[in-house]
Design a protein that fits this description.
This protein has about 270 residues and is mainly beta. It has two domains: about 110 residues, Macroglobulin (MG2) domain (Immunoglobulin-like, Sandwich), CATH 2.60.40; about 110 residues, Immunoglobulins (Immunoglobulin-like), CATH 2.60.40.10. Strands 14, 15, 16, 18 and 19 form a five-stranded antiparallel sheet that branches. The protein has a four-stranded antiparallel sheet with strand order 3-4-8-7, with no helix packed on it. Strands 6-5-9-10 form a four-stranded antiparallel sheet, with no helix packed on it. The N terminus is likely disordered. Bound molecules: copper (II) ion (CU). This is YtkA-like domain-containing protein. Keywords: Signal. It comes from Paenibacillus silvestris.
Length: about 270
């Protein structure tokens, strides 16, 4: 009898421990309009974009402060910028990578224009001096007519042509919870010759941003060989769990940044 009770008790403890770990891993919505992740509970980001309207210039401000409301003043450059801001529509069909300007006293601002009404997810990626790289997210509701949602369908083909660049993505042993390689190969779409003149973009051959289909899990991946200029760009990452993810690769050639999206289903 005593053994049975013990087993039931330890099972309950295991289950509650498990549930707790899961909730702290996800961004927590606070009532005062900001969200805090588990990685840096003491850092807060307050996003504001009052009266954001579709197709109109909108100023987005992000105030970075500690838990007592005191501004955090110093930020290190992370890939040439103090803050990277990723904005996506809820269906992930719209993607924008912005660099808010630092105004001092923890305040960042950026001008943005959203193509249609509806909810957007914003991810601010920054590095407070002496602290860890921090990502804070926020859901912004933009007024205006919503676009019809685009279904997130995993790709059948892994080659796409963007701005005259034919880009192939190869992922080895696709599975969750394990480190894997993402290899992009580039060739000129017109001449079919390998591209060897990719230019550094924000200090590296490319940048990869990955979001899960719910725009909840955010991964910002940097190349394993930042100095490459093509025809290959290699990245290493881990998908936290199985599911559908969208992967945006950003590269630069002939002075122009181009973004290549792929949707992948991680078993
Ligand atoms: Cu950036």
């Amino acid at each position: 009898m005593r053994i049975t009770i013990l087993i039931v008790l330890s099972l309950a403890l295991t289950l509650s421990g498990c549930g707790k770990a899961q909730t702290t891993n996800h961004p927590v919505q606070h009532s005062n309009g900001h969200e805090a992740g588990s990685s840096a509970e003491e850092i807060q980001a307050i996003f504001q974009a009052p009266q954001a309207k579709a197709k109109e210039e909108t100023t987005v401000t992000i105030q970075i402060q500690d838990s007592s409301g005191k501004p955090i003043n110093d930020f290190d450059l992370n890939h040439e910028k103090k803050m990277h801001l990723i904005a996506v529509s809820k269906d992930l069909s719209y993607y924008k990578h912005l660099h808010p300007e630092y105004k001092g006293k923890g305040l960042f601002t950026v001008s943005a224009q959203f193509p249609s009404g509806g909810d957007y997810r914003l991810f601010a990626d920054f590095l407070p001096s002496g602290k860890e790289k921090t990502v804070k997210s926020y859901t912004l509701t933009v007024q205006g007519d919503p676009a019809s949602p685009v279904a997130i369908e995993p790709e059948n083909a892994w080659t796409k042509t963007v701005d005259g660049n034919e880009v192939t993505l190869e992922i080895d042993h696709l599975m969750a919870g394990m480190e894997l390689n993402l290899t992009y190969t580039f060739q000129d779409a017109a001449s079919k010759t390998p591209i060897k003149d990719l230019q550094p973009y924000l200090g590296a051959v490319g940048h990869v941003v990955i979001l899960d289909a719910n725009a909840d899990q955010y991964l910002h991946v940097h190349p394993t060989d930042e100095k490459s200029s093509g025809p290959e760009a290699k990245f290493m990452t881990t998908f936290p769990k199985s599911g559908v993810y969208k992967i945006w690769g950003e590269f630069q050639r002939n002075g122009k940044v181009f973004t290549v999206p792929f949707v992948v289903k991680v078993p």
